[in-house]
Amino acid sequence: MKDRIHNGYREAARIARSSGSSFPLTFWLVPPVKRHGMNAIYAFCRLLDDAVDEAGTISEKHQRLDGLQNAYTDMVQKQCFANDFYAALYDTIHRFTLPLSPFEELFEGMTADIGDAVRVKDETALWLYCDHVAGTVGRLVIALCGVPESVGKEYAIWTGRSLQLTNVLRDIRKDLSLTNRIYLPASWLELHQVSESDLLTKPAPEKVVALCQYVGTRCKEAYHRASELRPTAFQRETRFSEALRGVYYKLFQKMEKSGYHPDVTVRISGIDKLVAGWQGYWN
User: Fold this and answer.
1) How far is CA 195 from CA 170, 204, 259, in A?
2) Residue 249 near residue 220, CB atoms below 8 Å
């Protein structure tokens, strides 16, 4: 069993390294044992994302996601591991006493991304989606770092909302043109009299710029709310979450500096991510 766990953590680290995401860049801030757990959590999320985002019919995507859910259920209920990775994930869950509900809600969030088109009705639906695909990860991370769910859940949820809305704002055109997904609530589009075709128009009409500025304001509110909810008794245990929030806030600040203009492509370098993560960690 030890060999399976060891091999599973190696596979999790490989998945994390190959992702190109900002998330794994911050893993070096935590001790090795927790770093293994971070890799396992991240790799699981990556597997779910790939199941939904890779090419295939709706039926094929459901089949891939169902296969992962069955493997997860067998791991939790029967201690039966589809491969070595699940042995490592099981070890992480039990070593750090992680809550299971975030894993289950992750599947709900991923299911929402399967279809010919994704549309979000209103702000309540937006936050629910963010909570399922990002807040869940935040809840697992703080639990791994030693923050009780009863204390840190709202902090993790608002951190997830701020990070996910940053992604949504950055990728409005890409999400619509490549995957026919619009995560901005229809109520927000209606408020600014923006049509779906307006979102793809270049140069961006003034009403689209105004919509993006509105989203930017709501995103900034989410960052501030997360900061307010950081548990004062668990400053040390929330450092990793703050490091990750720091990386995303650096990206958000560049978007803010551009006026949230959809015609401006915003990126931050690997060095900037490392510096922002370090500063967030010690904040």
Assistant:
1) 18, 12, 21
2) no
